[in-house]
Write a sequence for this structure.
């Protein structure tokens, strides 16, 4: 059973819409991640939050805007997306730099941009 | 920078046959090693991990992997596969003391045939 919860599981949006993906964990982890995964590919890192501060942004376009309201929550705000942004978006958490780096993943949010 | 190689992008195998999925990593220093499994339309689940100690690690569903430092490998094996093992398998590494540096391999699609 996953202890990282993502909502919604499926999202369809137009290119002019604004929507958000949400992620929640209650394992006391201090690092949280957004990954993007296209079909038949490994997850690609987008953002890392460490102790609620953005520590890594992998040159992601500004139409993706992350937010970490507290140590348990992570959001990804979406605006003016392109059809090529359609993918599975995975949230993950880990203990942080003092840990082993093991990532705990949610089930993902399947995004379709029309 | 770390890199992970999974030479086989697809591995078809008949049910009850043995299987080996290969993984090699680039670093010559100590690393943590992981195998993740992704079933269709789901997130990634940790299958097994090597942190230290015994070089042979096992999962609860019959998979095992052996850490070989001299060959920088962490191959995954199962003596008898089931239809339900059909999935995508990702090998990954992270650096001790820098848990956010997590690198995935490209993945191997295991297809178990009846």
């Amino acid at each position: 059973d996953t202890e990282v919860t993502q909502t919604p599981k499926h999202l369809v949006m137009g290119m002019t819409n604004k929507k958000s993906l949400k992620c929640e964990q209650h394992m006391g982890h201090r690092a949280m991640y957004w990954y993007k995964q296209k079909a038949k590919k490994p997850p690609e890192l987008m953002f890392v939050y460490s102790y609620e501060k953005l520590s890594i942004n992998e040159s992601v376009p500004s139409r993706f805007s992350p937010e970490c309201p507290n140590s348990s929550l992570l959001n990804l705000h979406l605006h003016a997306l392109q059809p090529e942004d359609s993918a599975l978006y995975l949230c993950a958490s880990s203990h942080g730099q003092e840990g082993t780096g093991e990532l705990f993943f949610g089930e993902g949010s399947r995004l379709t941009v029309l | 920078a770390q890199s992970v190689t999974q030479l086989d992008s697809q591995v078809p195998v008949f049910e009850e046959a043995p299987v080996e999925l290969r993984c090699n990593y680039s670093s010559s220093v100590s690393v943590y090693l992981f195998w993740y499994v992704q079933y269709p339309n789901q997130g990634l689940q940790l299958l097994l991990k090597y942190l230290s100690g015994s070089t042979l690690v096992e999962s609860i569903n019959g998979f095992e992997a052996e850490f070989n430092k001299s060959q920088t490998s962490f191959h995954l094996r199962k003596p008898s596969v089931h239809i339900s093992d059909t999935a995508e398998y990702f090998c990954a590494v992270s650096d001790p003391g820098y848990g956010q540096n997590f690198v995935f391999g490209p993945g191997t699609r295991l297809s178990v045939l009846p």
Summary: Chain A has a mean pLDDT of 92. Residues 12 and 40 of chain A are 21 Å apart (CA to CA). The longest strand of chain A covers residues 18-25. Chain A touches chain B at residues 2, 4, 6, 31, 40-43, 45, 48, 50, 55-56, 90, 92, 94-108, 110 (CB under 8 Å).
